[in-house]
Structures are given as C-alpha cells and as structure tokens.
Design brief:
The complex is a heterodimer. Chain A is mostly beta strands. Chain A is 0% helix and 51% strand. In chain A, the strands form two sheets. In chain A, strands 2, 4, 5, 9, 10 and 11 form a six-stranded mixed β-sheet that branches. In chain B, 0% of the residues lie in helices and 52% in strands. In chain B, the strands form three sheets. In chain B, strands 2, 5, 6, 7, 10, 11 and 12 form a seven-stranded mixed β-sheet that branches. A three-stranded antiparallel β-sheet of chain B has the order 3-9-8, with no helix packed on it. In chain B, a hairpin with a 2-residue loop joins β8 and β9. Classes of the chains: A mainly beta, B mainly beta. At the A-B interface, β5 of A face β6 and β11 of B.
Amino acid sequence: RKEVEQDPGPFNVPEGATVAFNCTYSNSASQSFFWYRQDCRKEPKLLMSVYSSGNEDGRFTAQLNRASQYISLLIRDSKLSDSATYLCVVSGNTPLVFGKGTRLSVIA
Amino acid sequence: DVKVTQSSRYLVKRTGEKVFLECVQDMDHENMFWYRQDPGLGLRLIYFSYDVKMKEKGDIPEGYSVSREKKERFSLILESASTNQTSMYLCASSFEGIDNSPLHFGNGTRLTVT
C-alpha cells in the first residue's frame, strides 16, 4: 500500500458547488497532516493544517479520521479561483510524505 | 512571511555538465529540502538537511549531491547532468521537527537538459 493516496481527479464542478476530497495514509503513527494547494507551474503553498478535532478556515474544512486513516478537505461555495491541484501531506518515518494530488476545476 | 529563494527560474544545460541549483531561506529554519516534481510522479524527495553540514538521502538521491555550508543556503548539485534529470526542482524549508512542521517552498527551477 502506498504511503499517501489521493484520487487524481479531475473533479469538474460548477461555481458554487461543494466538493470534498479524501486522502488515505498507511502509517498509523502519523501525527501531522496538511493540505497544500498547487497552481499550474507554481510551487505548492500551505492551505491549512489538519487538527484532530477538525478545523475550518473560511470556506475550507479539514477533518481527520484516525480510525480509518484518512483526512478530508471540504470546499464550500466553490470559486473559479479554487481551480488547482490539492496535495495531501502526512508525517511519516522520514520527512513529510506528499500525495500526488487531486485536480479540481471549477467551471463557470 | 517566509521567503525561500531559488536562484534560477529556468535553466537549460547540456548533457554531462555540472549543474548547481541554489536555494536560500531567510527565516533561520533548521531544515531544508530538495524535491523534484514530474507529471504523474508527484513530488519526490532528493535530499534533505536538518542542520548545517548535515545531509540525508531522500527517495531518489542517485545522480545528485548537496551542500549546506551555511544555515540559510542549501545547494543541489547534478554532477553530470542527464536528460532524465529534466524536471521542476523545488527547494523547501521548515523549522522545528523535521516531520511535523509544514514546508515552505521556493518558486521552483525548471531545468531542461539537452
């Protein structure tokens, strides 16, 4: 099993829709979790950390399910500017492990 | 705000050349990293460093070496560039624990080896 797995997408959603991505991880000892956003031909940028109790930042909600070993990202009221690739990041035995990302396209 | 600066945005080199990619961070971070990113393969860790003069191999160190003589600077060296090293190279830094602090990335160097 791969360390961090994400559905590559693309997820094509209309403006205003709610969309959710999941990311599964294999290391049950992982303690730190993050979501990054990467625009085409740009560097990844930290979107938000994921806390055990779940956390929200505006239209974005991140949750952690330790029992099933996955984290999720929910985007409400999608904007055209949300179109990007979303990378799931998990702590492991070495430096943080990155998923390959899920592509989101928000369509007018 | 954390600033990670990579010396070149685009670079074109010939097969067999020795290539230096430079990265500087201004936040006194202990940890620095070099990744490469290729379509369909995601981010792959080449080398990382958790202190000056310290270095650790990542997942794909073959064909690369690194240098960290000063805390703020982490250099990636391609000893003899090959066409399969054409890629986007990303430098990153973080502070505190090497596996629990978020990474801050530079804006990348797109290297083409012909």
